[in-house]
Model the fold of this input.
Amino acid sequence: MPSISPKKPYRVGRSQTGLGLFATKRIKKGTRIIRYFGPLLDSKKKKDDDIENKYLFELNNRWTIDGSVRDNIARYINHGCKPNAESDVKPRKRKVFIRAIKNIEPGEEINYDYGTDYFKAYLKPIGCKCDACEKKRRKKRAEARAERLRLKAKAERKARRKAEKLAREKEKALEKEKRKLVRAKAKKLKAGDLNGKARRKAAPETLVAPPQTPALPLLSDQIAA
Done:
């Protein structure tokens, strides 16, 4: 990693995508932060496609900067969908500067938009990992989790209501069966009472003879004796 003068307002550090360039001092909006440089490639002499690296910066239809050289610290600046810097291209001078488009605070990562072609070729297939996209993904994941929890809670409420309904129906069925048994028992008892009355009414009445008492001897019979 190339050395950076302590006077420079940036440093190379670890980022979400590997290495990145971070502010060490407050960088005001409009400040030229760093120059993007490297050998110039002439498309008339050599095709840019023959060079295998991701640090090619096209100035115009003819000239392209090969920014893969070690001293080009600007190559550590990552893409940002909502950047805090931009590329200030000077085609005639064949130079590119990275300029702040908003105030950048110490510790904040410096980033700029790489452009549509680069995004489609290198970033879209693997998914952009800039802060804006990461926040968007975190938000979507949080929303997805919230939706899953909402659906789970809804399913639990539905299952609870169903269980409560089944319990009430079971309780009603048991109560109905209980009343049915009580009515059947009462009906059976009533039928037994009616049958007893009917039998007693249908049976003939029998006369009961009064008990016979022994005849007492007459007084005349006692005297004669």
In short: The two ends are 168 Å apart (CA to CA).
